[in-house]
Fold each of these.
Amino acid sequence: MVRHYNNALPRPSTANKKLIPILPPEVKVKRGPISLNKVWYRGSSGRLIVIGQHITQLFKFERITLDYHHALEVQGYTERLITEAMRNGDRHIPTMELADFYIHEKQLVHKLFKVLVPRYIDYTDSFTKLWRLSPALSREDIITGKVRHADKGCLELKGNPLPPIEPPKYISRKSYLTNVLLDAAKKDFYASKQFSDNQTSKKKVETSAWLENFNSSLELISIYRNQISDIKHI
Amino acid sequence: MSAFFKNLYNKRRTTHPFRWWIKRKADSFKPELTKDNQKFIDDYFQTNFSTPLIVPDLFNKSQKVWTPESRRVGLIARKIGVYPMWLKDGQRILTTLLQVNDNHVIKCYNSEQFANQVIHQDRYRYQGLACAIIGAESDHFIKYSAGYAGLFVEAGLPPKKKLTKVPITDDALLPPGTPLYATHFRPGDWVDIFGLTIEHGFQGVVKRWDFAGGHPINTTKWKRRPGAIGHGRRAGGPHKGKKMPGHMGRERKTLNGVEIMRINTKENVIYVRGPAVPGETGNFCYIFDTKIIEKKLTEKNPPPFPTYFPGDNELPVDLYHPDVHRFEDETIQFVETEKEQQQRRTGAKIAKIRK
Amino acid sequence: MVLPRVIKLIHSYNVPLYCQLRSASRSWIYKGGKGIDKGKGFSFTYTSTPDDKRQIPLSQKLIPEELESMRLKYPEFLPSTKPEHRNKIKTVLEHNDMLQRRNNIDIPEFYVGSILAVTVSDPNAAGKISRFLGICIFREGTGLNSCFTLRNIVDREGIEIRYDLYNPTIRSIEVIKLEKRLDQDLRYLRDAEPQYSTFPLDMEPELRKEGAPVPVNPIKVKMLPLPWSIDWFKIRYQHQTYGIEKMRGVWEYYYKRSVHNRHHNEYEQFDLMKEYRSHIPEDAQLPIWNKLSDYEKSTSEIKKKARRAKMIKR
């Protein structure tokens, strides 16, 4: 969908002003900001105040339940806040203003710099985790088959002292039906002639020149893919 | 009914596919597999679906002679972006990049077989023509249903994300599994492109039909409205096809007569003049030879028929149109003609005399 | 061999190597709003595969100090901040063309506020060459679209010319005075006193030591009386203009007007995600600078040989 804004003059590019680390792929960032449907606030300035309220409760209790799409937004802001605090430290004035704006209880500002920053110093993944909760369906909804997408989400900071939501998984999957059937089919396939022929004839010149090119192009594709992964963007 | 109203009835845009198409997606059931079984599925896929079948006899026979009445196969590409380039005059043009990714021919029908499949209304349009099915962008077969993946078993190919039917003449038939490259075309050829346009949503009359509207300051309550709709009750209300607000965009549109400026053979990218290719970046585009009579292919410059088959001679990485300035060349310099030199001297003499 | 029927129900997992062909259809491309080809969603990731995970912790900087100068020399090599206009293969092709053009001409390092002289081969000029000198007002664009404007006053008339960096008709770009200003945007010079934008066309280049830091010029410009062509104090246009001398009455008038505007966000400086979306992160910048440092090393040897050949000839 194309949206047109009334920009009288173009602005200079800001891609190079500051060095920001990438948010890890577990954190889902949408292309545009999501509106939090609250009636008492007005505009984009009020939206930041609501996000600040969620962040103070997160730092206080370390696990909160929210609307799922609201939690997606809050996740991004918390991670950015914590990385700024980690990189710039305690005495940097702009980070102090940020912490002062987002955190409404002043005890938690000390918690940020003294408890959370040393906890997450060696992390390479995200600092938060978003769980998707099933919706609260009524009896009529279940009978008629009316299912909506998950309305609620649970945001928590990693390394919290509360009991975990999901128990650690170690269940052997060998007894699953699909794996049992595939194990049986595997034996026939690996013993067959088709597989051994393909292994030997991967690089043979059998039929024609263009077939050779097609097979060699598959190797080039794997080589080129490694080159592209070095460039690693866009 | 006049031709104007007929075109309005044929407009079709829905969110569900045609009902005679095969169900594409597999059921959303995700069991957990062991690593050995994951490897087994990869090996099975690689043995049976990685190398397409080809018969060498057909390959040699398919090198046929091109005639001006024959119609050859097209390509499916994806729009990557827009990019400026300069001509040797110093003029700046914009070019769109279209990437041809993993195109293969999946099936071919003769003119007799195709005539049995055609709808009654289209029988004159496809009279005497054969058909080829092309696919683009291969994907893992586990994502798709068995019916859809079965279409590709004959050719020995992995299933594709996008398919089309292409009308061709009997000369240009190809065996299933032949790959199609970007060098199917050459720089200097003229080409038609069609695709789905950008999505605008529900739009008003000023944006959708370029109505004038009203004055923005000196009016109240009438600024972007259509005004009068009909001629009264006697006329039976507003006539069919009246321009009104509604959904705009996401329609099929063709761009006729587009020139190819450059081809990159390593990554199969076609550079086309102009930024007006329909759709956003990441959109599928369908490329064919033109119907415009003045820009059609001629016998003096016949194209690779039925497609480009790579031989022993390797092509260079970039192929350019003769008017285009290459970035590896030196800067452009203009040379004075004798007339201009004489004018400059006489102008200097006159300026001296006046002083 | 006959496989059991259960394979129909199996769904996707990691797609194998030979399917991840060089395609433009990576997960972060937007797949259309409404209609048949509805994608699952948009994930704003620059690294789409799990092999490219970050190994250095997030508290440490990725880019080493040697490559920090590249950020300022080659700002047009970064891609655009709009994800709609981005593509991996397009940038690779674009970078190759840009580096080939740089083999034929020296494009120096310059900033907004520095004085440049550009010679262009022009078919309509006398002698087919034209030269213009001026102060750099504005710089925009990414890749081959990058451009800059120069401003000067000639015969009591203000002239602004916009040049493309990678235009093949440009013969040379000379930097006469390298300096920075307090703003990134000097278009308010149109309504300033003319002394701030006049420069003689015969100016000689200034010598500068290599490795010295770039000086910042803390000038505050005096403006002509109202009316202006554009409200330069309007906050929607630019958050703050540091380079204008405050005029009595004008500042408060415009500031009050903009506060009541619906689109005004007084806490915009605290908006972290807006900052993230308008920047390009470190992980995406590193491979570009690595590639350019390799290019610089390879070309420096060629240039040394050319210098030696010149000295030998003399």
Amino acid sequence: MTAPALTTLRRTPLRRLAGVDRLAVAGAVLLGVVVLAALLAPWIAPYPGDGGSATHPLEALLPPSGAHWFGTDQVGRDVFSRVLFGARTSLLIAVAVLAVSGVAGVVLGVVAGYAGGWARDVIMRVTDIFLAFPALLLSLALAVVLQPSVTTVIVAIAVTWWPWYARLTASVAASVATRGFVDSARCLGVPAPLIVLRHVLPNSLTPVLVQLSLDGGGVILTAAALSYLGLGAHEPTSEWGLMVQQGQSLFTTDWWVVTFPGLAILVTAFSFNVLGEGLRARLSR
Amino acid sequence: MPRYLIRRLGQAVLVVAGVIVLTFAIMRLVPGDPAVAYAGPKATAAELAQARQRFGLDDPLPVQLWNYVRDLLGGDWGTSLHTRQPVRDDLLQAFPASLELVGAALIIALVVGIPLGIAAARYKGRLPDLSVRLSSMLAVSVPVFWLALALQTVFASGLGWLPVAGEYDASLDRTSPLHLFTNITAVDALITGNWPILTSTLAHLVLPALVIAAYPAGVVAQMTRAALIDESARDHARLERALGFGETAVLTRFALRPALNPVLSLIALVFAYSIVNGFLVEAVFNWPGLGRYAADSIRSLDTPAIAGVTLLVAVLYVVANLAVDLLQGVVDPRVRAR
Amino acid sequence: MNLISVRDLVVRIGDRVIASVPELDVAAGECVALVGESGSGKTTTLLSTLGLVHGADVRGRIMVGDVDVLTASPARLREIRGSRAALVMQSPQAALNPTMRLGTLMSRALARHGVKGADARERAEEGVRAVLLDPEILRRYPHQVSGGQAQRFAIALALALGAQVVLADEPTSALDVTVQAEVVAVLRRLRDERGLAVLLVSHDLALVSTIADRVVVMRDGAVVESGSAAEVFARPSDPYTRELIAAVPELPEAVPAPPEPADLHEGEGP
């Protein structure tokens, strides 16, 4: 196999990703806003102290106004500030889950796909078992037996999420492994780990990256659900699911306490989905 | 086909076995002593020892696993800590209500999602397509518990158009008692001609079913669209056009059937996902299904009950997947020939 | 009168001309072959006669009978597709909807053109028999018939719909040599006995020499040579045509006999 063929194979998928898809751009911009809000929360929040345990009993449950854009909650904290700080919690969880499960899944998937044989069989059967649980279900079961916390949420979701990447990577890696340039590398005596690192891994990565961005929304929703059920973040952390849970009995009277955190979850999950969908459309073209 | 079937069945059995082991492992992760949880914090040492013996907690882990599997197969799914009833009975009682709710949701999802997917594929790249794609992405991005609260607040508590919670108006049990056959209220009411309970159940179903339907409807619309676009670019679609059929006819009368194949195989996944989404929705609408049972169990850290629900849903998922594989033979004659 | 008459056809995608045909006529009982390598624009020319070229700018004048394809309404265009000129595609099984029995496709197509009930059944069976297939084949799915059967069924569709021209796009290139001969024999017989016209697209000069009355040679979207088949094969004027002809090992002289009817056992599916 000649050198030019090898480099084109290795470069095209990522270069195609860089091409512009309007949907992907819209998703990226929306997500960028959320990320900025999370990063800058301590500086742009009108009442930074309200992201934590501050209480202002005299200002409890004020409707949205110029002073409090999203109103105030049961203990008088500014809901807008808490929504901004909540972005930190949600994105932290999403990034941590995707990083942990992505790395674990890709490593196992590449091993399974490249090595084949019994290693592949064992890894794929274990993957099947984990995939038999809907993500929220297994995270729920895990979160119940662990102590409720943000770390618990990350661990519980990551445990249910890696098999998807393992399966995806395995199938891509298996097809990459049969391509000519890998064969020729093997014939030239290049050691297996080097082949995997140089050829199999880079070629398997693009679909996983697209899947990761598609899954960000799912992770955000699952994390919010766990917190809503009281299995995740707890007071005084700003977390959107938790805010909905704490305010749910007030929905009829003080709608803003629940509406804005819920909208924040919706917008964040939506931006991930739009971005992922745009990338996927781009890639499959 | 038989050999293919046997292989699929073997795979399913293997996965169920793995699911049991994994559930067992999770439940043994529990910090603290299950015996304490059962006997209560004020139990005496003797009571604790009795509880430990009863649950076999002194045995080595493999023995415990073996006993667990043996009990499961023998129909003993443990005793719920919060209802103090056999978990199996609780599940059997709660499952039909969940099936009713998720069934209704999936019907809504298919009825809404497939036509939207067709419309998007028909007007690909134009306004109808963009709006279907965006709205289906919204539908899969909405947090269900929040949507449940919002719809309940607006349409039930606020406008009073629909009932707030429950499966049907409980006072009807006195005026027109329901005879149970399938334990699925709507079905039983229909076959026994119990109209008051049927209409009440349907009214109670609308909001929770709509909330649960959001996710599958979005997925079905996207999948239908993608599969139709794929199918209408194939050679057979060109021949159909050359036979005088217009775009709409090619999509609905020819491309739809092969395109439904991937949509159908998605339904199994979506079914299990929807049952779990029901966990969040049933609690809000006080729907007497698995979800409310699970939510109650979570609140009281009732591990045997949670293990039971987890196991049931995972097994359901495996079975649903199998069923879909078989169904695919009906839709696609090529699979039958395999 | 010409069944198909093309004048000054130019098909562009962006600035690139993908097919340019100054003149192309197909009369009843005549087989005209468009010859050239892939990318020469022959399939585009074929599809443009049915108005089936999408995403390209099509100019000129294309008449199918008395219908001007480029100015006709979409509804009128759909009416003539299949009923006047019918397509036979390259890959026989992929061209048939996998979820549909052949008979279902046939009856839907007939109903589309206003033929229903007993009349439709009769036309379907008559069409299938005319290509030497057993009407039993109508009960089968595409994966249950051989490539040759599928291809003959496509011709039967055209006959049942009353098409006077068959537009055949590489109809034999996906088939074995013996099966190719069958399909060609069927086309020849229908041309001779019924006056069916054939517009054939092919890169296979050996095939073309066995059936074509006239030949149009295309290269890079342009016509380089055209004339009667005998003339073009005997005295090619264009160097490209000479090259094409030289590449054929030997042009067969004998034509295989048409297959016997009811030869369904020949292929029980893939």
Amino acid sequence: MFDSLKERFENIFANLRGKGKLTEEDINIALREVRRALLEADVNFKVVKDVVEAIRTRATGRQVVESVTPSQLIFTIVYEELVRIMGDAPVPLAVSPKPPTVYMMVGLQGSGKTTTSVKIARRMLKGHKPLVVACDLRRPAAVDQLRVLAEKAGVPFFGPEPGERDAVAVAKKSRAFAESRLCDLIILDTAGRLQLDDELMCELEEMKSASEPTEILLVVDSMTGQEAVNVADAFNKRLGLTGVVLTKLDGDARGGPALAVRAAAGVPIKLAGCGEKTEDLELFDARRMAQRIIGMGDMEGLIEKV
Amino acid sequence: NKWTQSVSNIFSDDPVTDDFWDELEESLILGDVGVDTTEELITELKRIMVERRITKRGELKAEFAGLLVSRLEAVPKMGAPLDLSAKPSVIIMIGVNGSGKTTTSGKLASQLKGEGKRVIMAAADTFRAAAIEQLKAWGGRAGVRVVAQAPESDPAAVVYDSIMAAKASGADVIIADTAGRLHTKSNLMEELSKIARVIKREIPEGPAEVLIVLDAVTGQNGFIQAETFAKAMPVTGVVLTKFDNTSKGGIVIAIADRLKMPIRYVGLGEGVDDLQLFEPKTFVETLLDVRDAE
Ligand SMILES: Nc1nc2c(ncn2[C@@H]2O[C@H](COP(=O)(O)OP(=O)(O)OP(=O)(O)O)[C@@H](O)[C@H]2O)c(=O)[nH]1
Ligand SMILES: Nc1nc2c(ncn2[C@@H]2O[C@H](COP(=O)(O)OP(=O)(O)OP(=O)(O)O)[C@@H](O)[C@H]2O)c(=O)[nH]1
Ligand SMILES: [Mg+2]
Ligand SMILES: [Mg+2]
């Protein structure tokens, strides 16, 4: 259904010669397509507006050199802008100088918090002794899910006593348990919640002040639409996020939320989930993400020429 | 909220200008309706405006709501209760990871049981950690029996077992919860086709309902999801979950309009009673952020 931006550009510029200055008309036509492609990739409406204006500024009056077409020139500018917004270099997870390091996983229902908790633990097995903690006492079998995943991945697990209803208490108790097992990294898996659920957002605030997390990571499903901005903004305002994990990138969603959460919360996207297994976790790569959003490979070669 | 603008302002007493169309476009796109469908709807509303000689924004409100509702209602079975005339009737829940299949299975089981039906749930998600326990917990809440096998067993075999159990005990309805899967994974989509074949062998009419479960927060990928799942199984409807979020679920307009798939239910929370039949009018009012659109 969605043609890539590249195909669209090639169609528009089919009759244009690759020489001289870009006219205002050329740029307008191109930007209309850029706007459409970004919206279809679920980039937030407001972000799209800003990106398009930034591109207009950069493209206006640009000389087109011999070796590239106008389409390639604008394309490169689009790509560079996207990378700029998402942040150029990957940002690693922080480790506290004073152990234990604590990570708190937060996000909407079903975004991938539980799975990602174990993925991160598994990744940190090199050099650390992580503990995953079940602080979702609401969703049926959420504790079991974390326990089973942790067992399979060979990661220590801490959960509530039968009948325990206070997630903050579990988070607190996990500290002593971690100490007794010589675990230096605690990963708190929390229950999914809507950003507008005041009661549950309060629970996270309490958990934050009780466990002083090194990282508070928002887990965002890459299939999310325009709402991603509001989610990131609201979680950030309440909790002060330190990073984002984008999940389910093994599908074919273009991944516009990557731009949105970055623009809304200003925190880096640190990791990318790319499968259901606990080894399916990668460092977030803004360049690959930008290529995915506009739907084409190898931009780096082109950039050299432009 | 600084990102979303209040849409009720759009339909003010002011005259219709270019700004009006820009604002309407923005609100639809922010609701995840998608660019193509948004453009189509705006063209259609412009036509209506000329035809009815409308000059004020406010007068377009009812017209637009009516236009959306009629497009939705043009799809057969929009908001219709499930067709459970066969005995037993098999309902299958399908969809991508984390959309709300298991929760919706539990809510639906409870609702149907409340209507006096004898219900069995089939734990056909044998893949995800503790998916079986999760469904069993819902079975406990709803007071409904859950047919299950060990983790990693064949989902089609679980569905087969549940049909045998239903036939033996005279149950009316089977609700099969399946594992979440991304529509891009062809081996997992083939697994769904296999489940469909097993059902057809035992019940020649096939599954009574195949419901694709879609998170209201989903963007444009939702359209491709619906289209691809329909190739593996004859989808009979969409369940829009997590509609208690502020997201508008506008993607279902494109799904309804272009794929002709009816939306049957909406999920409005995590509780056992938070499931309602889909009402086009309520949906449109939420999408446009306007109350009492006549
Ligand atoms: N394909 C794919 N599936 C994923 C990925 N991450 C998580 N999932 C799946 O998404 C679904 C939801 O993941 P969970 O980890 O249970 O999500 P959660 O945020 O803990 O959910 P709640 O606790 O119910 O709010 C499960 O089926 C996971 O297997 C990913 O990167 N790719
Ligand atoms: N707020 C809200 N949460 C919901 C709704 N429906 C489901 N959820 C939550 O969404 C999360 C995922 O729901 P599940 O039923 O586990 O989703 P699933 O599709 O079975 O997930 P997988 O089997 O992992 O693919 C859980 O935390 C549910 O409690 C709803 O209508 N509103
Ligand atoms: Mg969870
Ligand atoms: Mg499930």
